[in-house]
Amino acid sequence: MAEHEREREHVKVAVIGTGFGGLGAAVRLRREGITDFVVLERAGAVGGTWRDNSYPGCACDVPSHLYSFSFAPNPEWPRTFSGQEHIWKYLEHVADTFGLRPHIRFNSEVKQMRWDNDALHWEIDTSAGSITAEVVVSATGPLSDPKVPDIEGLDGFEGKVFHSARWDHDYDLRGKRVAMIGTGASAIQIVPAIQAEVERMTLFQRTPPWVMPRADRPISGAERWLHRQLPFTTSARRGLLWGIRELQVQAFTKRPNELGLVESIAKRNMKRAIKDPALRDKLTPSYRIGCKRILLSNTYYPALAQPNVDVVASGLKEVRGNTLVASDGTETEVDAIIFGTGFHVTDMPIAERVIGADGRTLAETWTGGMNSLRGATAAGFPNWMTIIGPNTGLGNSSMILMIESQLNYMADYLRQVDVLGGRAALDARPTAVQGWNDRVQERMKRTVWNTGGCNSWYLDENGRNTTIWPGTTTEFRAATRRVDLAEYDVLRPAAQANRAGRPAEKVEADA
């Protein structure tokens, strides 16, 4: 063994990322009595997407009391829908309250993870050094790496260019001609937040979103006092918010035609603010509501109706100097370009850095589309788990519910490894992964995300929906309550396997 390998730090569990998934995993590990773990974070602070997305107007579209951990209720939420700064503060509070900071390694970006078949552990190279870990829990999240389209001539643009998730707070937008590219959740928050201060705003829209009214308001001091004094009221509020959204799921997953009433509400929301019939026509979607994520805003349409705003109902095709050319030929001269074009969701960059038992990267095994067992484990990648993995996303509720379900699965996974005794690893069987994904995709066929007539970021390049869970959060929690060892091969170190007279990778597969 090389000297540098002997000196390499070893831990039981390495968690990647300090967003909701990573911090939640760290808390759960401590609750399970596991303290031999590290949390690797590429930035210098916790928070994940809520640290990085600091653009003007950034807020959550899930009610505050539902967008927080059940084990860490927050009676002090200032609004029914919280802003980025409040959610980031909450995550900092979780890290401090549960004593997680000693476990966190900041400025430690994971460069590569490689499974060692002989040692039965992961070799992890980071920007701050290398470690080994028996189990890796990847919580990098699908909304962590910004996606900027390949636009001809963009390199020659002489003005300012940045993505919404990498906002340049040093650049003064006042009096500037600004182009907003995209009409997703970020864009509909940014546009009204900066419209009044820019000289001219041009919105490049490929597909108009459905926008519903946002029932946001300050949470009164009396409400916060009640939640502090009687904690069960916080749980009751959370439970009510959860229940309402559970009842909505069937319309998305089984009866999309029932969403027509919701469409009429969205159209009335538009009509109240947009009086110009031509502009209203541009902003009216041609697909079923829910096919793309339903957005919430009371200020987006009023901002678009202002005289200093233009809507180009065509995507950006080319940049010529400081002139932006749309696909329909419209030309617009601007000083700054802001991309609100989303993230690498179905092609997560972390997959390029994970090398499994057969020497292939996770990205290579996912060439035909992401797939995993119960949204958590992948065949050929022993003792590797992901939080918010394939087909765990939601179209109408809180991802924290899904994260907590996956934390249940992670906890039982680690218990099963310990119960097996000695050095052991679990590797998802290909047949189990395939069977799970076949069932998910069969259920997906009836959903609004597949039948609604849109092309969304839920779909990969093959048109396969690899992001959304086609059921209720209750169903997912039941599916991830415990690990079924029949879905896994049990691996043992080579020396132990040889003594048993069987190959290392299958030494206890039939146990």
Any overview of this molecule?
With 511 residues, this protein is of the alpha/beta class. It has two domains: 3-143 and 346-506, FAD/NAD(P)-binding domain (3-Layer(bba) Sandwich); 154-209 and 292-339, FAD/NAD(P)-binding domain (3-Layer(bba) Sandwich), CATH 3.50.50. It contains 16 helices and 20 strands. The strands form five sheets. Strands 1, 2, 3, 4, 5, 6, 17 and 18 form an eight-stranded mixed sheet that branches. A five-stranded parallel sheet has the order 7-16-8-9-12, with no helix packed on it. The chain has a three-stranded antiparallel sheet with strand order 13-14-15, with no helix packed on it. The longest helix is centred in the middle third of the chain and has 23 residues, at 231-253. The two termini are 32 Å apart.
List the helices and strands and how they pair.
Layout: H1 3-6, E1 9-16, H2 20-31, E2 37-40, H3 49-52, H4 84-97, E3 104-105, E4 110-116, E5 121-126, E6 129-138, E7 160-163, E8 177-181, H5 185-194, E9 200-204, E10 211-212, H6 221-229, H7 231-253, H8 260-273, H9 277-283, E11 295-296, H10 300-304, E12 309-312, E13 316-320, E14 323-326, E15 331-333, E16 336-339, E17 354-355, H11 362-365, E18 384-386, H12 399-420, E19 425-428, H13 430-444, H14 448-451, H15 473-479, E20 488-491, H16 494-500
Parallel strand pairs: 1-2, 1-6, 2-3, 4-17, 6-18, 7-16, 8-9, 8-16, 9-12, 10-11
Antiparallel strand pairs: 4-5, 5-6, 13-14, 14-15, 19-20
Helix pairs in contact: 2-12, 6-7, 12-15
